[in-house]
């Protein structure tokens, strides 16, 4: 059993922390927002009086914050100084690759260990402990973190050294964004050619057009009854989160001078989608922008 400081008890953090409690760990949680603290307390998490208080005396610190700037400032302002030497910092927020590497360097300079372990699988995955973790870590730190990640997730992939968990996350989500757009385009094109949704689905789902954006997150109602299109694009995975992740992909594309024109275009399209009502809708709802376009 470990004593774990869990910081950031939002949509993802709270159910993840609860799964660690279920697995028998001693979890001390903290969040900046009173409503998140109240919800966590009601769910049975022990709440510390501050981030530093949660960290003091813990063997492991898990952060699940909105963005990289929150991670870097929390590390610098209080967490690293409050931790006992050699504490294992597991950073699970989705942040830029260079921010993950900067957080790693800060933790190492302060005498600690650090891994990046972003997730996919959403709130349902967090609740059911079926998250996928993409991990950037040394072999030794990966082995130390593995039992904890297994308590919160189902598929844990060691992607390489520090930062490479975040690299895998941005690359995967860039594939997802581009494929969700083109699946939407194909359905709208099919509509205009007189092709029914069911007919296109039956062909593509069993042919070389097969992909998750089609067979799980089908952007038209009907063929896949559980997809967000059947509930007016209630997320699912919200457009705002996809736009955020593509912003991180764009940063990586620019830093590496990669000729990723599809990824760049997906970033533009999702930034526009998320700036309107799409921010709160499932990202497959981009099909309505495509249908409304010329
Ligand atoms: P959220 O906004 O619901 O929760 C983040 C929490 O962190 C907030 O409650 C906030 O108050 C807290 N916080 C910020 N700074 C803090 C600090 N210094 N100390 C303590 N608490 C602090 O966000 P979320 O949906 O839980 O997502 C968390 C991360 O996971 C994000 O990086 C997101 O991109 C990623 N992610 C989310 C999903 C999803 O479906 N929601 C899926 C995969 C990955």
From TrEMBL:
Residues 163-287 form the 3-hydroxyisobutyrate dehydrogenase-like NAD-binding domain. Keywords: Branched-chain amino acid catabolism, NAD, Oxidoreductase. The keyword Transferase does not apply. Its EC number is 1.1.1.31. Gene3D superfamilies: N-(1-d-carboxylethyl)-l-norvaline Dehydrogenase, domain 2, NAD(P)-binding Rossmann-like Domain. It comes from the Bacteria. Residues 3-160 form the 6-phosphogluconate dehydrogenase NADP-binding domain. Pathway: Amino-acid degradation; L-valine degradation. SUPFAM superfamilies: 6-phosphogluconate dehydrogenase C-terminal domain-like, NAD(P)-binding Rossmann-fold domains. It is an enzyme of class 1 (oxidoreductase). It catalyses: 3-hydroxy-2-methylpropanoate + NAD(+) = 2-methyl-3-oxopropanoate + NADH + H(+). Belongs to the HIBADH-related family. This is 3-hydroxyisobutyrate dehydrogenase. The lineage of its organism: Bacteria, Bacillati, Actinomycetota, Actinomycetes, Micrococcales.
């Amino acid at each position: 059993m470990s004593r774990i400081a869990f910081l950031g008890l939002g949509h993802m953090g709270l159910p993840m922390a609860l799964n660690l409690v279920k697995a028998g760990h001693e979890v001390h949680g903290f969040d900046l927002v009173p409503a998140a603290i109240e919800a966590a307390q009601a769910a049975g998490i022990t709440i510390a009086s501050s981030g530093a208080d949660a960290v003091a005396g813990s063997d492991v610190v898990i952060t699940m914050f909105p963005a990289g700037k929150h991670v870097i400032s929390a590390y610098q302002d209080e967490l690293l100084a409050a931790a006992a030497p050699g504490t294992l910092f597991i950073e699970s927020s989705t942040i830029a690759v260079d921010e993950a590497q900067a957080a790693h360097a800060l933790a190492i300079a302060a005498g600690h260990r650090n891994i990046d372990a972003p997730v996919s699988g959403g709130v349902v995955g967090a609740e059911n402990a079926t998250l996928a973790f993409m991990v950037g870590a040394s072999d030794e730190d990966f082995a130390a973190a593995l039992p904890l990640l297994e308590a919160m997730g189902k598929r844990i992939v060691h992607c390489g050294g520090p930062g490479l968990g975040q690299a895998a996350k941005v690359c995967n989500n860039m594939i997802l964004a581009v494929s969700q757009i083109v699946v939407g385009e194909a359905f709208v094109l099919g509509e205009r050619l007189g092709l029914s949704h069911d007919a296109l689905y039956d062909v593509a789902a069993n042919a070389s057009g097969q992909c998750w954006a089609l067979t799980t997150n089908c952007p038209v109602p009907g063929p896949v009854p559980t997809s967000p299109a059947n509930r007016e694009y209630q997320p699912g995975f919200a457009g705002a989160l996809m736009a955020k992740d593509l912003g991180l992909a764009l940063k990586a594309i620019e830093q590496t001078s990669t000729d990723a024109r599809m990824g760049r275009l997906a970033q533009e399209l999702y930034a526009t989608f998320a700036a309107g009502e799409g921010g709160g809708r499932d990202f497959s709802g981009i099909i309505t922008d495509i249908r409304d376009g010329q």
